[in-house]
Amino acid sequence: MSKPLRIALAGLGTVGGGVVRLIETNAALIERRAGRAIEIVAISARDRSKDRGVDLSPYRWEDDMTAFATDPGIDVVVELVGGSDGPALTLARRALAQGKALVTANKAMIAHHGIELATAAEAAGVALKFEAAVAGGVPVIKGLREGAAANAILRVYGILNGTCNYILSTMEDTGADFAAVLAEAQAKGYAEADPSFDIDGVDAAHKLAILASVAFGTTIDFAPVEITGIRRVLAADIAQADALGYYIRLIGMAETEQAADGTTRLFQRVHPHLVPRDHPLAHVDGATNAVVAEGNFSGRLLFQGAGAGDGPTASAVVADLIDIARGDAKGPGAAPFSIPVAALETLAPADSGPRMGRAYLRFTVADRPGVLAEITAAMRDAGVSIESLIQKGRAGAGGTDTVLVAMVTHEGPESAIAKALRLLHGSPSLTEPPLVMHILSD
Ligand SMILES: NC(=O)c1ccc[n+]([C@@H]2O[C@H](COP(=O)([O-])OP(=O)(O)OC[C@H]3O[C@@H](n4cnc5c(N)ncnc54)[C@H](OP(=O)(O)O)[C@@H]3O)[C@@H](O)[C@H]2O)c1
């Protein structure tokens, strides 16, 4: 029997605790599938005395997790601390520099430093694996790296944040407004006390930037991701969308495009979208994640499942460990981003202006004559063609003297909508900035 794969766990919170439970519960089948045992030899977190609902006495405690990097008794460091920088990054850098394989669930760290870490892993000839960083328990990184490896991926998009999806689908079911549903989600533990990373779209953007790199063979480029969260979505928007045959979902979308100058550009956006009711993503409810990848030979692939939680996320972390135990993570196929870092392309960000599509626009306006005419004139002058327009009674947003004007546009370039909004910018008729949501095309 081969020697066990000896791992050290840094971080014993939701995911770390789940990994301990999974490895203990499924030890025998993991050993059969991996060809050797996976053995936890050391653990670390901030507070040794904390009750974590699992017996940790069999494992060696280390106060300083960076000691794992130089411990000759450890083969793989599993980083489950979190944070793009700080102790997680220090540990990751040291572990790889010392020739230890690294498994992480840390999307923020991979989105910001993934290329640096992959370079270090490739130089050291060790694995860097991060399946759990994108869509939790859903094996989308493996799906793209392995199952869809023969395809050119044309577009990758999906529901990448369970908290946002829970909030939007609950707003849909109950008719309640965003703030009430967020408060309820926090009370139930579905949303963090500080939910901004989730609801402002940053978490989804981290995952999208990683997905784009794996899908398109490009270097991770987080900075240009256009990010809009769900804070400004009203119950009235959800009702309007419903009346028009759509559900609202926060969608992360990445695709490569040919620019006018002939260069290939990378488009990346996280934005609330109207999703047609017959689209598979429209029926992804609650805290579920789902990713669609369109391959040029496979057609549309849909990956769906739990995007968070101790069990699902541990499932992805331990799948990475099994790959390493099997030796799959060595050799030419081992590049963390599918293609060796030196061969990844760096693409300039795409300009959203020429993108064609339909959109939903919602204006909160003063309740007085002439306002509707002002908005429609701006649309006409900017070349935006209106497919339908709904003016909703008072209240709902901004107090009693406001009305909502919602419209859906015909297909046209995004630059036209941007121009219309510029024409209306600063108008005293608008009581708050307009909300634009793109309509997901098939
Ligand atoms: N939760 C999920 O469902 C999920 C899903 C996908 C990916 N992820 C990612 O997985 C990672 C871990 O998430 P989590 O939800 O498990 O977080 P968590 O519950 O907050 O656990 C974090 C752990 O790291 C430890 N820690 C934090 N700062 C530390 C420091 N300075 N030094 C030593 N230990 C430190 C904490 O120690 P104490 O316990 O002693 O405080 C805790 O055990 C994050 O990168 C997250 O984005 C999580």
Can you give keywords for this protein?
Alpha-Beta Plaits, Dihydrodipicolinate Reductase, domain 2, 13 helices, about 35% helix, six-stranded parallel beta sheet, alpha/beta, about 25% strand, 3 domains, about 450 residues, elongated, binds NADP nicotinamide-adenine-dinucleotide phosphate, Rossmann fold
Describe this structure in words.
The protein has 13 helices and 19 strands. With 442 residues, it is of the alpha/beta class. It folds into 3 domains: 5-137 and 311-343, Rossmann fold (3-Layer(aba) Sandwich); 141-306, Dihydrodipicolinate Reductase, domain 2 (2-Layer Sandwich); 356-439, 2-Layer Sandwich (Alpha-Beta Plaits), CATH 3.30.70. Strands 7, 8, 9, 10, 11, 12, 13, 15, 16, 17 and 19 form an 11-stranded mixed sheet that branches. Strands 3-2-1-4-5-6 form a 6-stranded parallel sheet, with helices on both faces. A hairpin with a 5-residue loop joins β9 (246-258) and β10 (264-276). The longest helix is centred in the first third of the chain and has 18 residues, at 107-124. Bound molecules: NADP nicotinamide-adenine-dinucleotide phosphate. Residues 11-16, 45-47, 50, 65, 80-82, 87, 105-107, 132, 136, 308-309, 313 line the site of NADP nicotinamide-adenine-dinucleotide phosphate.
